[in-house]
From TrEMBL:
One of its GO terms (cellular component) is mitochondrial inner membrane. It comes from the Eukaryota. GO terms for biological process: protein insertion into mitochondrial inner membrane from matrix. The gene is Maip1. GO terms for molecular function: ribosome binding. This is MAIP1 protein.
């Protein structure tokens, strides 16, 4: 990321700690976001969308129900990310906003890069083959693809609101479009 973007996100983290949650830690948030990404991506892959009610906003869940039903099995398999297969995570955009009724929200976009062994065709654009490992003999090859995903987490900080983060955007480029 650019130095300007890095400074801007750190400034927003300071504002979150000062005005919304003194206990907020980006390290702890990132750990939780990785766990949520792993759980949600596996449930998407398994088409267990009914288990996402508490984790994903209703609007996103409705869109996912339509998209998942149209996905080929290979693309659906590629959605799943084991927590140990997440190679890199970074924060994207951080936003703090108030709606017309004075409700306070914080939104953090997280970007994930993960390895997946789904049997994707070689011509899938936007992904990179990282490993093609030979185990035993030449006829046994295992492919690994480096895939990306963007998940946006949102939390309401209005007095009396539940202290839960909800996923308000899910993007798996080239897979879930």
């Amino acid at each position: 990321t650019s130095p300007f973007a890095w400074l801007r996100t750190r400034f927003y983290y300071l504002l979150i700690r000062l005005y919304f949650d003194q206990e907020f830690s980006i390290e702890e948030f990132t750990r939780g976001a990785k766990q949520a990404f792993s759980v949600v991506s596996k449930l998407l892959s398994q088409r267990k969308l009914d288990l996402l009610d508490e984790l994903v906003s209703a609007e996103v869940l409705q869109v996912l129900k339509e998209k998942i039903s149209l996905l080929p099995d290979t693309h659906r398999d590629a959605l799943a990310a084991d927590i140990d297969a997440i190679m890199y995570t970074t924060e994207g955009d951080v936003r703090i906003y108030y709606d017309d009724d004075g409700i306070k929200f914080v939104s953090i976009l997280m970007r994930f890069w993960y390895l997946n062994g789904a049997n994707l065709p070689d011509e899938v654009p936007g992904e990179t083959k990282v490993f093609q490992i030979v185990f035993g003999d030449e006829s046994t090859k295992e492919k690994r693809h480096l895939l990306t995903a963007n998940y946006e987490f949102q939390r309401e900080f209005t007095e009396g609101a539940k202290p839960d983060w909800t996923i308000t955007r899910i993007e798996h480029p080239r897979l879930l479009e």
